[in-house]
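Subject: design request, 692 residues
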């Protein structure tokens, strides 16, 4: 970073370096040319990146108004903006690739196109389902999801429809769909977008990339605005994103990329760590710095992570633990999936009873389909949870209501009133109470959403000695809503490992560690197994203080034991070449507890029976009139949403509702097939239909 503008006032270069380790300081003080930072898990990469920007501003090497910091998630972008504000450089633009591209495309649209800006497709399921139906294919939910993912892969890999058939031979295509069929569906999807003047998020990148390659005047304006680039998680960059980044960069060389090849877990979606590893061959005078000091996890967890990396076939970064203490990695074997879910819920309850916050605990799994058993087990114990990947925080009704009240009163609250006090009083008007409700389900979720706003106000006020104006809090909420940077909600996090990337918790339960689940059954080639191993490494390194690995020997109690523990479990136990660490203890089985009908004491076997604690006989027969009303409601709702009926509710779920006839939200929440999102969206109406 060469001297290019006046140093930003109020920034002390020496103070900015004081809290950095030697490698982080090398990143912060790097001058001139591109910089590649290999950052292992928990090594403080965000700290290094933000201090680099602030140090450059303090010394005159960087004008923060001309910096574009790029991330892959809204949460990461929000965290970076927050840290930069704290360092005294709030004017830096920190956005996701898609957010930055969409902002530029909207701005320049009138310059190269006619008409209003197209409508954005925020969820592909509906349009892809219609394209499949138009192409003569049966529309099933799982197939729609897989076809949508394949369409995204082709777009971000810069593979056109004409080229796809020739290049799709090595792909694991959706069941029942071959390369020729995918071409027909992709063509129909493209025509559907053209007819409806629609753009999906990949189109945003593609269109902007094309414009910057053909319109020198527009490219020149962007080059004038953005002169310094920082890119996080560079191992996840796709060919499309890399191409767009190179167009943004132009002939400049002020580029800092940060990533870890050991955390490349999105290659199925087009991500390639080759851009991170190969950047020195693409640009001149590239310097490389490695961050290896792990500040997140205790030594036993770091040792287990290093043992996993020893099996990757590459020369990995060997993490060096900075913290001390910590107990050994725990291993637990269960007879079946239900026993595992109940055992983990029991362990979580023990953690909370011992004083641990629910928000400090995460249960991570390989696929989203594994979450239901853990949702039910936690609900039975009255433990609140947050399903990561569910409904967006700022789309919740109670959050919208609360923000509207705060906005309406931002000028009437006296400036001498502490922010915490003002927010508590106003949010109480939309139903928040100082004590958590005893009820679960939607009532508890609503309270937790409002409490998240109160907690955010507390944090914001704690950072200032004088009262923070309510108007400043409203601005903060607007910024967070724009970038989908939600405040934390207190509850046990349930998430797939992919959704947990970039997050961390004091306690992590890594579940379902059987062959066929992790690694997943369709991972057969060495490259696919290597990616599954990296996924396991990412999951393991989400934990700060404690981690428990568990697996079950069978899916159901009645099945003969035929599962084997994941090979990755063994790799954490036996030290690999050149690695050190303790040997983990042998597994300890936990007994499975039978559930019985609350009316007749019969053992409950099926998920439907366990949902409300009754067998079918005691639950009552299917009420055909109620079932018919539910089917009619589903058809109307599907037409309104323009989606297939099964995406609203499956017939099996409607039949179960008609049999169990729940009368309250908390009972409806226990029905398999009704998750938090559907409960929020349809719960009130479903209960009205049930009531006739």
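Subject: RE: design request

Done. Sequence follows.
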């Amino acid at each position: 970073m060469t001297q290019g503008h006046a140093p930003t006032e109020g920034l002390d270069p020496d103070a900015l370096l004081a809290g950095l380790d030697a490698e982080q300081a090398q990143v912060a003080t790097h001058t001139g040319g591109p910089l590649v930072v290999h950052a292992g898990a928990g090594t403080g990469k965000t700290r290094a990146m933000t201090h680099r920007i602030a140090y450059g501003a303090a010394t005159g090497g960087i004008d923060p108004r001309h910096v574009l910091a790029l991330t892959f998630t809204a949460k990461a972008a929000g965290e970076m903006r927050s840290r930069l504000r704290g360092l005294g450089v709030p004017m830096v633009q920190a956005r996701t690739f898609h957010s930055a591209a969409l902002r530029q495309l909207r701005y320049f649209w009138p310059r190269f196109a006619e008409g209003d800006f197209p409508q954005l497709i925020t969820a592909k399921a509906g349009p892809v389902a219609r394209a499949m139906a138009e192409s003569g294919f049966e529309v099933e939910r799982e197939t729609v999801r897989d076809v949508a993912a394949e369409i995204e892969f082709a777009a971000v890999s810069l593979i056109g429809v004409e080229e796809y058939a020739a290049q799709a031979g090595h792909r694991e295509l959706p069941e029942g769909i071959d390369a020729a069929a995918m071409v027909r569906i992709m063509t129909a999807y493209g025509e559907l977008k053209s007819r409806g003047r629609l753009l999906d998020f990949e189109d945003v990148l593609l269109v902007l990339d094309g414009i910057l390659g053909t319109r020198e005047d527009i490219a020149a304006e962007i080059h004038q605005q953005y002169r310094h680039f920082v890119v996080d998680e560079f191992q996840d960059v796709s060919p499309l994103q890399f191409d767009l980044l190179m167009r943004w960069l132009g002939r400049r060389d002020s580029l800092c990329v940060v990533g870890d090849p050991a955390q490349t877990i999105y290659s199925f979606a087009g991500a390639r760590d080759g851009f991170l590893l190969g950047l020195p061959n693409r640009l001149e005078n590239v310097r490389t710095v490695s961050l290896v000091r792990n500040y997140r996890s205790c030594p036993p967890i770091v040792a287990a992570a290093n043992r996993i990396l020893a099996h990757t076939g590459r020369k990995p970064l060997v993490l060096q633990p900075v913290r001390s203490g910590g107990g050994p990695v725990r291993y637990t074997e269960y007879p079946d999936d239900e026993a595992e879910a109940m055992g983990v819920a029991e362990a979580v309850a023990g953690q909370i009873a011992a004083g641990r916050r629910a928000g400090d605990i995460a249960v991570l799994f390989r696929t989203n389909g594994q979450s239901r058993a853990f949702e039910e087990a936690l609900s039975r114990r009255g433990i609140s949870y947050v399903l990561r990947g569910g409904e967006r925080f700022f789309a919740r009704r109670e959050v919208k209501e609360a923000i509207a009240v705060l906005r309406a009163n931002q000028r009437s609250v006296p400036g001498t009133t502490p922010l915490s006090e003002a927010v508590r009083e106003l949010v109480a008007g939309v139903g928040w109470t100082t004590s958590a409700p005893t009820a679960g389900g939607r009532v508890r979720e609503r309270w937790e959403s409002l409490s998240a706003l109160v907690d955010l106000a507390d944090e914001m006020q704690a950072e200032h000695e004088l009262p923070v104006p309510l108007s400043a809090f409203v601005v903060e909420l607007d910024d967070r809503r724009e970038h989908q940077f939600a405040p934390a909600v207190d509850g046990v996090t349930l998430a797939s490992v992919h959704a947990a990337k970039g997050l961390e918790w004091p306690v992590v339960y890594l579940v379902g560690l059987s062959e066929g689940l992790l690694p997943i059954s369709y991972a057969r080639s060495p490259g696919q197994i290597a990616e599954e191993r990296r996924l396991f490494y990412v999951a393991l390194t989400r934990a700060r203080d404690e981690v428990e690995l568990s697996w079950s020997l069978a899916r159901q109690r009645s099945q003969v034991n035929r599962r084997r523990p994941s090979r990755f479990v063994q790799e954490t136990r036996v030290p690999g070449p050149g690695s050190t660490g303790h040997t983990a203890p042998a597994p300890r089985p936990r007994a499975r507890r039978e559930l019985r009908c609350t009316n007749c004491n019969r053992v409950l076997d099926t998920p439907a029976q366990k949902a409300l604690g009754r067998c079918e006989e005691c639950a009552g027969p299917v009420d055909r009139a109620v079932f018919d009303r539910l089917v009619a409601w589903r058809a109307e709702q599907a037409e309104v949403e323009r989606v297939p009926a099964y995406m609203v509710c499956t017939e099996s779920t409607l039949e179960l509702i008609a049999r169990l006839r729940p009368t309250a939200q908390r009972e409806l929440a226990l029905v398999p097939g009704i998750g938090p999102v559907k409960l929020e969206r349809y719960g009130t109406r479903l209960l009205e239909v049930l009531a006739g």
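Residues 634 and 665 are 18 Å apart (CA to CA).
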